[in-house]
Amino acid sequence: MFLNQYQHTFDDKGRLTIPSRFRELPEEGAFVVQGLDRNLMVLPPAAFEIIYTRLMAMSMTDPSARLLRHIILGNALQVALDSAGRILISTNLREYANLQNDVVFVGQGDYFEIWSPDLWQDQQVQINDASTNAQRFATLDLKTR
């Protein structure tokens, strides 16, 4: 399970060290895809397969389905950890997420996200708005039992 937040930097060869707590990725690696908030999502194969299956079941005549396929599959990258726990992220994905040197890893349970610090800070403003969140999440019926 991917939880919490961690900060890391790209090395001089453009490789990104995955936080040790996030290295539970299977031997076959993971899939890096565009997130929906100018971030990247790193999905283990099982999670990617679920999304892939759902995307492929959508009608190709539906413009929203095609757009979602472009977003998720059109830039998807399969990666594997090297012996030092690093991955190499393609230039187009780095540019999309505005990743320069520093990054923030954010756990999301079954997957994790990679954010630029500036965009993550913008996201934090929304996350920390308690009164808006009370209204925004009221209908989600979030329970522990």
Walk me through this protein's architecture.
- 32% of the residues lie in helices and 23% in strands.
- The chain is an alpha+beta fold.
- The protein has a single domain (5-116), classed as 3-Layer(aba) Sandwich (Chemotaxis protein chec), CATH 3.40.1550.20.
- The strands form 2 sheets. A 6-stranded antiparallel beta sheet has the order 1-7-8-4-3-5.
- The protein starts with a strand and ends in a 9-residue tail after the last helix.
Strand content: 15-25%
How many helices? The count is 5
Q: What best-fitting shape do the alpha-carbon axes yield? A: globular
Tell how many strands the DSSP assignment holds: 8
Along the chain, the helix and strand elements come as EEEEHHEEHEEHH
Radius of gyration: 16 Å
Under the CATH scheme, which class? Alpha Beta
The quaternary state of the protein chains shown equals: single chain
User: How many structurally independent domains?
Assistant: 1
| Annotated CATH topology | Chemotaxis protein chec
CATH 4th-level superfamily? Transcriptional regulator MraZ domain
Q: What is the distance, rounded to the nearest whole angstrom, between the alpha carbons of the first and last residues?
A: 20 Å
